[in-house]
Specification:
With 126 residues, this protein is α+β, with helices and mostly antiparallel strands. The chain is built from one helix and five strands; from the N terminus they run βββββα.
Length: 126
């Protein structure tokens, strides 16, 4: 009986625009074309608008003038990327993400069990 399967190779190659993002949050919405848009952001403190230093003309020492410090007074959500996917791709992503979460749970449970068994072992007082 002939083999009814065939193997194919798929290589992943980074594009010139490849980047790694730290994601603090995600926003999800439906596009006008009925796809799903996912935006990612990282949160940070705002960058100061102005920082003032006084410089001593005699010795060149400087000191920060706190009273003249200006900032936005807010947290900044810097949007790093926007992904647009079809509902089918979103379902595949959800399924794979669920699988990964289950793997993480199993690893965490195994680690907790190993740590607990280490805690209950009698000490070697030889």
């Amino acid at each position: 009986m002939p083999d009814s399967t065939k193997k194919i190779n798929i290589d992943y190659i980074k594009s010139n625009f490849f980047r790694v993002f730290h994601v603090d949050g995600l926003g999800v919405q439906i596009t006008p074309n009925l796809d799903i848009q996912i935006i990612s952001w990282s949160e940070r403190a705002s960058i100061p608008k102005r920082v003032v230093f006084e410089i001593n003309r005699e010795d060149g020492e400087s000191s920060f003038v706190k009273e003249e410090f200006e900032d936005r007074g807010s947290i900044v959500r810097e949007v790093d990327a926007s992904l647009t996917v079809t509902p089918e791709i979103a379902h595949q992503f959800i399924e794979r993400l669920q699988e990964v979460l289950e793997e993480l749970k199993a690893i965490s449970n195994k680690k907790d069990t190993e740590e607990a068994s280490e805690d209950t072992k009698p000490e070697d007082n030889s």
